[in-house]
Amino acid sequence: YLISASVMDTITLYLYKAYQGDGTLFMLAAVVMLMVFNGGNVEDAFLYGLDRAYMTAFGVAVYTLVGSFLWPVAAERNLAQQAQSMFQLDRSLFDRLQAEKPVAEGEGTADEAPPASTKALIEQLMTTESTLRAQWLKARSEDPEVSSWSREWSYLLHYQRQLALALTTTQASPGTPQPDYARYIPRYRERIGTLQAQFDQLLMLWQSTEPPTSAQPLPEQLFNQSEVDEHTNLPHLLQAQLASRMETLRDIAILLEKLTQLSVSILQQRPGESPANEQVARQSAFVAIDPESKKTAVQVFVTLWLSAGIWRLLNPPGGYLFVILSTALV
Question: Can you tell me the distance from the alpha carbon of 80 to that of 88, in angstroms, rounded to the nearest whole number?
Fold first, then answer.
């Protein structure tokens, strides 16, 4: 039985690690499979089973009460705080456009690395976004209020991923000459300032304790590509850089407007009001090929047999419980 339990526990805890939502059921199944072994003691198995069933039912009842009265409020608050931190990192990354300095060709070296603070900001943004997605998936399965605006959260995370990619492309690549965009793009600083105000509006929505009423739209014709197309006498590389920057700024403006509208809809708790028409790719509940999940599965298998060997040879305090806790706490 222990051989079969070790294989099944390895598979179950791999699924627990790979599952993007609440994996409590997988962890519970793994622990129950180990507990049924009961240290190889077959005496009083029926009474032992009744005792386990009673304790499990009691735990489920307590968990349900706590989840019904305490968890929903905490879930909404945690999601709001995580979203606020994510948009603050977006704003910090975008602020670097205002402070960037033009670098003429030949002034930089090809092996220059981007500032450590910029790399750290990007990594922190990706981590915060992943944490928010995991928290939302968990809250969606446990809190009906969060689940009722699941569509809005799906679009918000989808557009946030696009915004993060757009912001990343605005950061200067190592050794790439950077033109003076304000010299060639009319009202460049004004455009940057308008987008910064849009970021501030988005942050204020999540920081305010009062439900928002509406969002201020962006001025029309703010990112007119024809103004850049007039520079036809410039070098091709410079033209491409100017066109790319204008295209990126326009994408950021569109994404910010969509994120702002979605934030208003979520914070007002009005499901179904979404500015998006396109389909968002459905996220898989499992990460099928995940090195970390495979690593955890191997650790579970090795730990189970190592703790079982210690239990049989040394019989530490707690007996077979030592094996169960060692495996569950990997």
Answer: 12
What is the pTM assigned to this prediction? 0.63
Q: How many residues does the chain have?
A: 330
Please report, in tens digits, the pLDDT of each residue of the chain (330 residues total): 788 888 888 898 888 877 766 677 788 788 878 877 776 666 666 677 677 767 777 877 787 777 666 665 677 788 889 999 999 999 999 988 766 665 554 444 434 444 558 888 888 998 899 888 888 877 776 667 777 778 888 899 999 999 999 998 877 655 566 778 888 888 888 888 889 999 999 999 898 766 555 556 555 556 555 555 556 677 877 888 888 888 888 899 999 999 998 998 888 776 544 554 555 555 566 666 667 778 888 898 999 999 999 988 988 888 888 888 888 887
**Gyration radius from the chain CA atoms:** 27
Provide φ and ψ at 161, rounded to 5°.
-65, -40
Q: Look-up: residue for tokens 């969002």? A: 215
Task: Look up tokens 């791999």; give the residue.
Answer: 14
